[in-house]
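Page 47, continued from p. 46.
Same chain as before, 716 aa.
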Amino acid sequence: MGELALYLHELGYVVDAVDYAESAIEQATAQAPDGVAVRFLKHDIEHDNLAALPHDAYDLITFRLSYAFLKNRTWLSNRLREYLRPGGMACIITPLASALPADRRDIALDEEEIALVTSGWATADRFDADGMAVLVLQEPTSAPVSFADKRRPTPQGLIGAGVVVTDEQGRVLLGRSVRGVWELPGGKPNPGESFEQAAVRELAEETSLRASADDARVLAVLMDTTHDVPRLTAAVRVTAHQGTPTVTEPHLFHRWEWHWPADIPGLASALFTPSAHVLDVAWPGLLQDLPPVHRTLARQPVAPESPERARESDQLRQKMTDQLIDQGYINDASVETAFRRVRRHLFLPGVDLETVYAAADAVVPTKRDRNGKATSTVSAPWLQAVMLREAALRAGDTALEIGSNGPNAALMQEVVAPDGRIITMDIDPFVVERTARFLPAAGYDRVCVVLGDGEHGAPGFTDEGCLDAIIVTVQAPDIPPAWITPLVEGGRLVVPLTIHGYSWAIAFEKHGDKLVSRSYTVCGFVPMQGAGAPAEDVVSLRGGEIRVRFPEGGTADAEQLTRALKTPRLERRTGVKIPGNTPFDKLMLWLATTMDGFCRLAVDPKLDTGVVERAKGWDAAAVVRDGSLARLLLQQTGTSTWEWCIHAYGPAAEQLADEMTQQVIVWDRDHPIRDAPRLTVRSRLGGDTEATGARTLVKRHTRLDFDWTRPHRTSR
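Result:
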């Protein structure tokens, strides 16, 4: 590894050279001259967290004689694309299988594999020499997956089972067959076998993964036609397994790989048609333009429990509900009844009951991204209770939940029962499959589960006045029209809205063509994905050590600010002190809505050289104007007392420090710590979206007007 890394260094690159073998790192480090800009790192690129890499993006990613050894190369290729800077390239140096004897071809790529690698790039150049191929890949792209069938089946091959099995990250197992097609594990039942028995047997025979028929269940039976012959396929979900996927039938499969479901529509390769139909059962709406199929869904029984576990869970659930009542989160009889009935633990298998029924901040992640960050969670009970309370659901209401996982939809269904209707939707196929599986098993088969981008609303529920309430359980940077138009007059929207990077669950009520806030609750949720995903403008200083973030859009002159940071720091004490553990989120909102040029200042702890003191646990509130910067920070003045202070830099440092100090003093004097402004939201579709000052914020879809003269009292 060292030779190529040092050569790239000589070309002018700053190089991160990684290998999973400690010996390779030691050898490369020993051979490298002193002072070269090369980091030799022990890192398993396939299994370790990619976020541990020193840089967030690279101009060049190389694989030297290593790509063929990857077990999940398709998945890893998709992840590493995301680490390329615009205009960057990937380079794969690999032996050619045709140049090696048969017993050594596992260290090389054949022509089919090379075609698969290069299919995901707009530009793919190839250079061959001495039995090696050098692939230079630029501009990641995607092409839709296609669907393929085998030759005309024999009569005994007309009935089969397709097996959906996922790993701990929620990735689904697919095999690359000798026909160049991706397939699920599976096959035909033997005489006397059930579909479940056939599924676990075929799984073991094809992949060596071991499972029990008790952990397999039929999701649906599918009937389609191939070569004018009817074909029957059972979609079987295996929920627990042991072992590592292994090629046990090399005459049928080249390898087995784990794939994130969201990657499958862009495989740019063929997918076995019955496997495609089975995947579409597990993740409804995942694949588009599927060949015709008749589908009979299997009704799932309510999950059985042992008497001991049922008794323990019931006791913990009643205790949790009592605590939520005592703490003031539940003050409505219908919400109380819902919390006493919904068996929250059925949506969190494998999580201990004490954790499931903790009334405090018991947020349970159910899926994480490649960096280990949660992308889907089951919210804390106290926050679910607050959002249900603020949504003011009533029996007979029709309500939409955007951001799914099961327990919250079950609570909503309990409140609107017996005649009300709940729709829950999510953009993630894994989350939708999980929710669609657990809700019926917990006894809530009337909830409609939809796969889709919540930014656009739920299909069939976008007409004016068709919803009584919407609860959004993902952090949203804006409120799109599809969340306003469908509400009835007086309808409620509860949404974790981000304002200048800070987040509150704000309850709104619809009045005419606008929304008016009723309450704020400090909260944290996973961010939206898809069309409504958050975006912000960032100005990097000192090589990325310091980042000036503009969550609502904005910019600053990096050269001016860099010069400003070299000037002597102006320090200003405000005289405003607060006890420890005092919430100060509304002060941030006050500054954001009263000071032009408001932004957030982030200091990278990995690169911090001490130029700017790093705030502990949060990005500092800051203002950038006139080539200068002022930021807010807390300094300890006693055992449990803190004072707000200002650090300012640049030619206008004194002016900015004076202004920020004055605003902190006004806030402390005129606004109780939990005061929040009355917020009126108007869709930009209706016009009148020009900003009128810092108290007006214009987003992509809406205009937000903040009125601090009529404050709300906030909770939590």
